Amino acid sequence: MAEPYGNYHATDGRPGGDYGGEHLVVRSVPVPDPGDLIGRLPEPAALAWIRHGAGLTGWGEATRVTLPSGPDRFAVGEKWLREVIENADVQDEARRRGSGLVAFGSFTFDDWSEGSVLIVPRAVLGRDGTGNAWLTTITPDGEAAWHTAPQAPLLAPGHIRWHDGSLSAPEWEQAVSAAVRRIIRGDLRKVVLARDIYASADEPIDARVLLRRLADRYPGCFTFACAGLVGATPELLVRRNGRKVSALVLAGTMPRGATAAEDAELAATLLGSAKDNEEHGYAVTSLTDAIEPLCQALRVAPRPELLRFANVQHLGTWVHGTLATDHSALALSAALHPTAAVGGTPTDTAVELIRELENMDRERYAGPVGWVDADGNGEWGIALRCAQLTGERARLFAGCGIVAASDPAAELAEAQVKFRPMQTALEQGD
């Protein structure tokens, strides 16, 4: 059980105002390209951040912190991590972004939700997709170098049974209607409303099985796992590489067509949709307003492009910048969250309406998820198209941007499409 550390909890902490954990011994070495990162995960409690086969996987826990609720949870987490890093003995022969000491993290959407977490694993396997790969081991000082446990067999979840979440489909449509009325009244311009559903399986759900299925079907998404939250998000909240930062804003959605002609027609409809472009514009503005004060230069694509995935297509806008001061990837994610892509416009009013209408705690859905290394480099996405795993149960989430022109039935249909990646990952046969 975690022991108290200040006003948060760390697995190796002890009471006090400063980090009290053991010194960690960190060793990163180049290794032959492993190819498949997911296939190397030895146990179901996986950590992962993978796109097009490149990224990081981790397993075991050298240390972990569960952060208190509150708007300062990111700052508290960064202070804890900085103290872990300062107390570590690091030998990094790989010298790659993501080598050395790395923490995976997942933060709650709402300031006042419990459950934000940072995990420093016992082992990290990295691959950059250009032939470079490395293995990092992280052990408490005085322990023998940690060796990977034998590979636990993969077990499919078996038959899946589905249950309503906090709101049934008709109840959620009523919530959308209420939101539209508030927008028309002038209370706000956009709000993102989400709903949840539950799955019950015959067997405990192995995160590695879902990671494999998601990565195979959605290679262009960021497939992630952290503390039981597993998904494949299309949205990059922020990437930091030295002073260079980038983000991919997504808002505005259309399903894929059954034929090439239908697909092209749906794409043209999305690109020309006033409703979807309005929704997208709010998301771009909220992100650029937050990141611009931190940059000495910022470039925003002049118009959204069409981004196609296996089941949906989105309007997407890339943002690139150069930092004016040294902010870590974790600090940047704190500055950007929540964007209008997952909250609304204006933010405070939208979040209050979410609390009022959704009838649930989003927990870590739609919060930042990703990783950060000791140099402050890293990648954080928005936890979308995901599920929280607990034994044989999974809680799935999907959300839609609501504006004045939104139709409740159409928004419900869009939410159903967004559930499908995780539903398919749970249901598909081997």
Q: Which key terms come to mind for this protein?
A:
single chain, 430 residues, alpha+beta, Anthranilate synthase, 13-stranded mixed β-sheet, twelve-stranded antiparallel β-sheet, 8 helices, 25 strands, 26% helix, globular, disordered N terminus
What can you tell me about this protein's structure?
- The protein has a single domain, classed as Anthranilate synthase (4-Layer Sandwich).
- The strands form two sheets. Strands 3, 4, 5, 7, 10, 11, 12, 13, 14, 15, 21, 24 and 25 form a 13-stranded mixed beta sheet that branches. Strands 1, 2, 6, 8, 9, 16, 17, 18, 19, 20, 22 and 23 form a twelve-stranded antiparallel beta sheet that branches.
- 26% of the residues lie in helices and 35% in strands.
- With 430 residues, it is an alpha+beta fold.
- Helix 2 crosses helix 8 and helix 3 crosses helix 8.
- The chain contains eight helices and 25 strands.
- It is globular, with a radius of gyration of 21 Å.
- The two termini are 36 Å apart.
